[in-house]
Amino acid sequence: MKDKKLLRAIKSIVGKENVSTSPEERVCYSYDATNIKYLPDIVIHPHKVEQISQIMRLANTYLIPVVPRGAGCGFSGGSVPIRGGISLVTTRMNRILQIDEENLTCTVEPGVVTGELQRAVEQRGLFYPPDPSSLEYCTIGGNIAEGAGGPRALKYGVTKDYALALEVVLPQGEVVHTGSQVMKSVVGYDLTKLFVGSEGTLGIITKIILKILPLPQSRKTMMVIYPSVEKAATTASSIIRNKIIPSCLEFMDNSCINSVEDYLKAGLPRQAGAILIIEVDGSPLQTEKEMELISALCQKEGASQLKIAASAQEAEQMWKVRRSLSPAIASIRDIKINEDIVVPRSRIPQLVSHIEELKRELNVVIPCFGHAGDGNLHLNFMYNKDDQDEAQRIHRALHSVLRKVIELGGSLSGEHGIGFAKAPYLSMELDTATINLMKSIKKIFDPNNILNPGKIFPPDEEE
After folding, report:
1. Is 201 helix (H, G, I), strand (E, B) or coil?
2. Which helix (H) or strand (E) is 206 found in, with range?
């Protein structure tokens, strides 16, 4: 950072030990899971809301971009500082401030790791359901900013369904409080929901009040093997059609199976067309009954093998397979374009069939996994960087799939956000009037466009 006066002012706010301009430190905060890198000019680690408020006032005065950042594990570039400026990292604001067992709420700072919060409330017989696969390192603040989901979204919903109230620093430094810790409140606009999923473009989240639930008494997990992806997809629709709502209903195709087997040596059947991981929870009687019904449906739809976990350890091994998918498939090709499309769950078989046809027609690699129960699939369009022909074919496949998703009444992003990676496709789903309304909201909150600029809207549509 060239402006020495500004640098001194920042250090006086947060302490010089919480500020870095070294090349090594800046590189560490230049990318997320997209692995696309843009260097920030300075990295700041605030500890409290007052510091963030003062930093935003300075940044607004000097017109410096500020990019809020949690663990930096997003898949759409939301925390990448594409215009330089300040990378404002909230991971040191990591306290669980309160677990209220009487009112079933908890209050946390944005840097609390999701898995750590889950374990903390479970020790008291309580339950925080949202469970992104990165739960052992992603933060609650990042989950709020991106609208994170996870396997349990089928039964329990996503992060926005648990966010009751927020403390937020606005781009010009004002601190606002949205929502309420009570279960019912219709006083004014629902600003809490506006901030959830806003990808750090409207404000910086500094405190969160979340709803929590009683911990289910019992849980059963099953892995089901299928000879084809079509049969697995049809089973997922059949389970829901029969009015059974598992807590999780996860899908992975053959490419994913073989990648995870290479990665974990878990004993997965390499010739299988697809695998479903299904979990139910509730009372012991309920879970036993639902697992029996689901097992019968799986067999009816053509499952070649099914295994119900006999212990918590076996269930954890099944979930380890699922959580290892993203790193496992990274070795298939040099470049991975990650998409998290959503279609109405009854139309998953149609989408899967379309993807399989494209793979055969264009001779491309598209590992497919995700949350079949709620229609949210993670598609990985992969190619080698030195193979231009393969790159062209994979981009043809990508555009064909996105068009198919919209045709089926779906959405281009279920839980990863838009960031800058998906911004070019925004107008495929949203009409001009809707995009203009969103840009107007951004302008009201951030008239100087300093907070996470270049995200959500394509560059030629941002101003």
Report:
1. coil
2. strand 204-211
* pLDDT average, residue stretch 160-174: 98
CATH of domain 218-407: 3.40.462.40
What's the CATH class of domain 96-214?
alpha beta
Q: What is the pLDDT of residue 368?
A: 95
C-alpha span between 329 and 450 (Å, rounded): 36
Q: What is the dihedral of CA 79, 327, 150, 87, to 10 degrees?
A: -10
- Residue 326's pLDDT band (boundaries 50, 70, 90)? confident
Query: What tokens were used for 221?
Result: 């997990």
Residues 29/37, Cβ–Cβ less than 8 Å: no
Confirm whether 96-214 and 218-407 share one CATH topology.
no
Neighbours of 408 (CB within 10 A): 18
Q: Please say whether the dihedral angle defined by the alpha carbons of residues 288, 290, 296 and 302, taken in this order, is positive or negative.
A: negative
Task: Show the tokens assigned to 339.
Answer: 């998409």
Locus of tokens 């927020």: 166
Tokens of 101: 């067992």
Name the CA radius of gyration of the chain, rounded. 22
Selection from 30, 76, 86, 33 nearest residue 204 by Cα: 86
List residues bridging with 19 in a β-sheet.
Answer: 44
* Assigned token pair, 103: 């009112």
Domain boundaries, the chain: 4-89, 96-214, 218-407
For residues 134 and 338, what is the distance between their CA atoms, to the nearest angstrom? 15
What end-to-end distance do the CA atoms of the chain give, in Å?
26
The rounded mean pLDDT for the chain is 96
Tokens linked to 416 = 């990863």
Q: What are phi and psi of 267, to 5 degrees?
A: 80, 30
CATH of domain 4-89: 3.30.43.10
Bridge partner list, 275 = 225, 252
Q: Distance between CA atoms of 182 and 161, rounded to whole angstroms?
A: 14
Compute the distance between CA of residue 424 and CA of residue 462 in angstroms, rounded to an integer.
11
| d(C-alpha 84, C-alpha 62), whole Å | 14
Written as one letter, the residue type at 203 is G
- pLDDT tens sequence across 334-387: 999 999 999 998 999 999 999 999 999 999 999 999 999 999 999 999 999 999
How many contiguous H segments (helices) and E segments (strands) does the chain have?
17, 18
Q: 424: which 2 tokens?
A: 């070019």
